[in-house]
Write a structure and sequence with these properties.
Elements lengths: L2 H26 L19 H8 L5 H5 L9 H13 L7 H14 L1
Helix pairs in contact: 2-5, 4-5
Length: about 110
C-alpha cells in the first residue's frame, strides 16, 4: 500500500471512529423535556375506558379534539383512523377493542 493510500485509509478510519464516539455520546446523554399542559379533557362517552387504555400512550385529548368533526366525520372516518393507527403506525390494539374505540369516537367527537 502506498503512503498516500495509507494516509487516506487512516483518515477514513479516524473519521469513522470520531463519528462513532460522537454518536455514542449523543445516545448516552439524558434527555429532559416538559410536556405541554393539556387544554382539553377526554369527553365522557361509551367505552371511554377502552379508548384511554389503547390510545393515550400516543394521543392527548388535544390531538383527538382537533380532528375533523361534523356529520361527514363519523363512523367511517373514525374506523379509517383507527385502522390507520394499527396498520400504518403499528398501534397494538386488540381486534376486540377496535369497534369499542370507533364507537367512543363516533359518539363523542
Amino acid at each position: 500500500m502506498s503512503a498516500s493510500a495509507l494516509r487516506i485509509a487512516c483518515g477514513a478510519l479516524l473519521a469513522l471512529l470520531a463519528v462513532a464516539a460522537i454518536s455514542a455520546a449523543v445516545r448516552a446523554s439524558p434527555v429532559d423535556y416538559q410536556l405541554p399542559e393539556e387544554t382539553t379533557a377526554f369527553r365522557p362517552g361509551p367505552n371511554l375506558d377502552v379508548m384511554l387504555a389503547n390510545c393515550t400512550a400516543c394521543h392527548s385529548s388535544d390531538y383527538i379534539s382537533t380532528q375533523p368533526q361534523g356529520p361527514r366525520f363519523k363512523k367511517d372516518f373514525w374506523q379509517a383512523e383507527v385502522t390507520k393507527m394499527i396498520k400504518v403506525y403499528g398501534a397494538p390494539i386488540d381486534d376486540a377493542d377496535v369497534g369499542k374505540i370507533v364507537e367512543y369516537l363516533t359518539a363523542t367527537y
